[in-house]
Write a structure and sequence with these properties.
The protein is of the alpha+beta class. It is about 50% helix and about 10% strand.
Length: about 450
């Protein structure tokens, strides 16, 4: 708003500088020209009158009156040149006109703007640059809900589903150490759950930037011992094997996982890409402890598959249902293509975190489905369904119409930060295909 009025003030000053100085310097015409020049001007006018009479443009009577007026004007002008009071009057008139313009121009500008312009335009522009109120409220609601859940669990620590939901929520916020502690609480209440052990291993890996340690290796081993076909554990085991240079062991785990997945699933296609890369490494002998993660992996921090906060197709191509939900037969499904607007692509680093999520249009603002990946993975197809829910009690099938969002975050935090990129689709039904989700807005 201040900038607008400074511009208006500058324009008014420029206008007055153009109009006022000439008035202050103005002298009567008789003072700026010689008597001969004045006479020459009127003689030219009389000559024009004679031509008009000869051409028939003027009647003799009209010619006589016009000639008489010319002579009277000539005498008055010559008299003014010789009268000091007339010169002073002319100067006073110029000064008066300058004063009037100095006051009248700004007042007229304000009155005209109030009548014809849009006094709220600056405020509208300022509001349009502010963060979207709905998105801010949603992020605040999410943080408040997570904090409220944590407080409730501290008071009632024997709620396994509550701890599991809290762990997944912490991973959404990038708080991996807190997620590890929450998963450990789940295992305290329901020991030996293979899916939870795999999720714990994933959180441990994320906290260590994708580097396996004794705890994550042990969690994967326990998960596969309890369930040799646990999808995420197989994906993590393959990644760990490839990192230690054992491409054959990686292929064993990933080929077993591929046999468990529907052939037309996106996760199956991702695993197939991983298998192809592992075979190439095995053939060339390049696999080693410092080997890059599989081609479909997002980075070292998510090479084992994206955290359980983002179930569904993960970085290693694994769909991870929640332990209490089992293998979901989702009735709601949102599918489409996610990308970053071409004009903003240069502002994004390949390692920036990307969240794709769905929130109810009404009621709670907690996400009912969420995926997590990296900017390097875009553009790519995405699918949100009940298997990507953060809680079995809050799923896409139960949400009705939703708001589908994409957020590109440098901090890895799901809450919007200045400089993040956003994109939103509103009023999306529970079953939609061909969605075009574009990160095209910068969070101010």
């Amino acid at each position: 708003m201040t900038t607008l009025w400074l511009i208006v003030l500058a324009l008014l000053l420029a206008t007055l500088l153009c109009l006022v100085p000439p008035l202050l310097r103005r002298t009567p015409a008789a003072e700026t020209a010689s008597d001969a020049s004045v006479r020459a001007f009127y003689l030219a006018q009389r000559e024009q009158l004679r031509r008009d009479l000869a051409n028939g443009a003027l009647t003799p009577q009209a010619h006589a009156r016009a000639d008489e007026e010319l002579q009277r004007d000539l005498l008055q002008d010559l008299a003014m040149r010789r009268d000091p009071r007339a010169r002073l009057g002319g100067q006073r008139a110029g000064l008066a006109a300058a004063c009037v313009l100095t006051v009248a121009v700004p007042v007229a500008a304000v009155l005209l703007y109030g009548q014809l312009g849009n006094p709220r335009a600056a405020a509208t522009v300022a509001l349009s640059q502010a963060p979207e109120p709905h998105a801010q409220a949603a992020d605040n609601d999410m943080a408040l809900a997570i904090n409220a859940l944590a407080q409730r669990l501290r008071a009632s620590p024997d709620d396994a589903d509550g701890w599991y939901m809290l762990a997944r929520s912490y991973e959404t916020l990038g708080r991996y150490n807190d997620a590890v502690a929450a998963y450990q609480e789940v295992l305290r209440l329901v020991p030996g759950q293979p899916a939870v052990l795999a999720d714990l291993a994933d959180a441990l890996l994320s906290a260590r930037q994708g580097q396996p340690d004794e705890a994550s290796i042990a969690a994967v081993a326990q998960a596969l011992q309890a369930d040799p076909d646990q999808p995420k554990a197989l994906a993590l085991a393959g990644m760990m094997a490839l990192r230690r240079g054992d491409a054959a062991d990686a292929l064993t785990h990933w080929e077993r996982l591929r046999a468990l997945l529907p052939p037309d699933a996106e996760a199956a296609r991702q695993i197939q890409t991983n298998i192809a890369q592992a075979r190439a490494m095995a053939a060339s002998g390049t696999a080693g402890g410092a080997a890059a993660p599989p081609a479909s992996g997002n980075s070292a921090s998510t090479a084992a598959g994206q955290p359980a906060t983002a179930p569904g197709p993960t970085a290693s191509g694994v769909a991870t249902p929640s332990p209490s939900a089992g293998a979901s037969t989702a009735t709601a499904r949102l599918a489409g293509q996610a990308r970053i607007a071409d004009a903003l692509r240069d502002q994004v680093r390949p390692t920036d975190t990307v969240f794709i999520l769905a929130r109810p249009m009404t009621g709670s603002r907690m996400p009912v489905a969420i995926l997590k990946m990296q900017a390097a993975d875009l553009p790519r197809a995405f699918v949100l369904d009940d298997s990507t829910a953060m809680s079995p009690d809050a799923t896409l099938s139960k949400a009705g119409k939703v708001r589908v969002e994409i957020r590109v975050s440098r901090s890895g935090n799901a809450a919007a930060q200045p400089g993040d990129l956003n994109g939103v689709l509103t009023d999306v039904g529970p079953r939609a295909d061909g969605l075009a989700l574009v990160a095209d807005t910068v969070v101010p």
